[in-house]
């Protein structure tokens, strides 16, 4: 009889558990503080004869379901330069069809903050397995980082390449490494690249790309500096780390909160951003490194227009801007 009582209790427990599982459980409420940008652009495809920049990630270190972490893809004549590769970069590239076989030819880093280099390791790993050279450039210790990937993943790379009937030679890889400091100028394929140091909370470089009489500048993270204005002089497009105005904001708190060694914001204020764009005399200013806030686009543009009279665009992931003035969402 005791056994029967035990069996009934056991079966009742199972029935109760099954019933509870079958019930509709309350759904977790996911709140996205940010909303997609209000301007919608037409879609388009890359014309390889045009010089263009595609925003791969327009966000910052905060998780944001609408914005990947900082990354920009500069393209000219079939050559692809990826500048910074924060969280989400590989997924974004795959969405655009930049798969392993069609991946960027050059990997550039502006600085070694996690939101800019988090996906450097998988990008290098991917390139080490592909035929043909690839260029890696950025501030120290970029050589150490690249060598580390080669060494740490040696066995993994050997295994994967053996599966493809190839061998991995760790002493002679296909990576060309350029460790950069301060002002530099060098060419890769038919594009000239220049750099300058800019102020941030750690050592940071800005990049200028020149091809066929046109130019694109990617600032990386920075505060005001005349060096950026000098580097970006007369550029067609300047992609700039710059703060924005929140919708309905009473607070004057910066939209990028990190601070430099002196305790000041480590990112350009809206006034500083407008000043650099105006001093450089660029045609189009693309504001990026955007926070997880509702942006008042009208107020932001009005504030910038007090100093800068050119075109102002708020970055969105996949937004593509060409040096001849076309703006579209890359498909
Ligand atoms: Zn950053
Ligand atoms: Zn940074």
UniProtKB/TrEMBL annotation:
<dbReference type="Pfam" id="PF12706">
    <property type="entry name" value="Lactamase_B_2"/>
</dbReference>
<protein>
    <submittedName>
        <fullName>Ribonuclease Z</fullName>
    </submittedName>
</protein>
<keyword id="KW-0732">Signal</keyword>
<dbReference type="InterPro" id="IPR044094">
    <property type="entry name" value="AtsA-like_MBL-fold"/>
</dbReference>
<feature type="domain" description="Metallo-beta-lactamase">
    <location>
        <begin position="68"/>
        <end position="267"/>
    </location>
</feature>
<feature type="signal peptide">
    <location>
        <begin position="1"/>
        <end position="22"/>
    </location>
</feature>
<keyword id="KW-0378">Hydrolase</keyword>
<dbReference type="InterPro" id="IPR001279">
    <property type="entry name" value="Metallo-B-lactamas"/>
</dbReference>
<dbReference type="InterPro" id="IPR036866">
    <property type="entry name" value="RibonucZ/Hydroxyglut_hydro"/>
</dbReference>
<dbReference type="GO" id="GO:0042781">
    <property type="term" value="F:3'-tRNA processing endoribonuclease activity"/>
</dbReference>
């Amino acid at each position: 009889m005791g056994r029967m009582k035990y069996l009934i209790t056991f079966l009742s427990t199972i029935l109760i558990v099954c019933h509870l599982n079958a019930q509709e459980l309350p759904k977790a409420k996911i709140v996205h503080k940010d909303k997609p940008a209000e301007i919608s652009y037409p879609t388009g495809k890359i014309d390889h004869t045009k010089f263009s920049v595609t925003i791969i990630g327009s966000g910052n270190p905060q998780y944001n379901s609408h914005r990947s972490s900082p990354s920009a893809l500069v393209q000219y004549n079939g050559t692809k330069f990826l500048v910074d590769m924060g969280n989400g970069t590989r997924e974004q590239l795959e969405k655009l069809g930049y798969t392993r076989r069609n991946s960027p030819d050059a990997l550039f880093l502006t600085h070694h903050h996690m939101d800019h280099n988090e996906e450097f390791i998988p990008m290098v790993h991917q390139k080490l397995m592909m035929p043909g050279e690839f260029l890696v450039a950025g501030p120290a210790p970029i050589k150490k980082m690249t060598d580390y990937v080669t060494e740490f993943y040696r066995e993994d790379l050997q295994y994967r390449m053996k599966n493809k009937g190839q061998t991995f030679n760790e002493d002679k890889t296909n990576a060309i490494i350029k460790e950069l400091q301060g002002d530099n100028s060098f060419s890769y394929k038919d594009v000239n690249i220049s750099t300058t140091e800019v102020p941030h909370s750690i050592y940071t470089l800005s990049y200028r790309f020149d091809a066929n009489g046109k130019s694109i500048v990617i600032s990386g993270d920075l505060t005001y500096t005349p060096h950026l204005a000098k580097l970006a002089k007369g550029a067609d497009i300047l992609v700039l780390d710059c703060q924005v105005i929140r919708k309905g904001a009473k607070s004057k708190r910066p939209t990028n909160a990190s601070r430099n060694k002196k305790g000041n914001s480590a990112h350009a204020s809206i006034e500083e951003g407008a000043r650099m764009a105006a001093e450089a005399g660029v045609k189009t200013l693309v504001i990026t490194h955007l926070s997880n806030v509702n942006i008042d686009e009208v107020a932001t543009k009005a504030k910038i227009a007090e100093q800068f009279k050119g075109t102002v665009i708020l970055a969105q992931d996949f937004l593509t801007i060409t040096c001849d003035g076309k703006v579209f969402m890359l498909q």
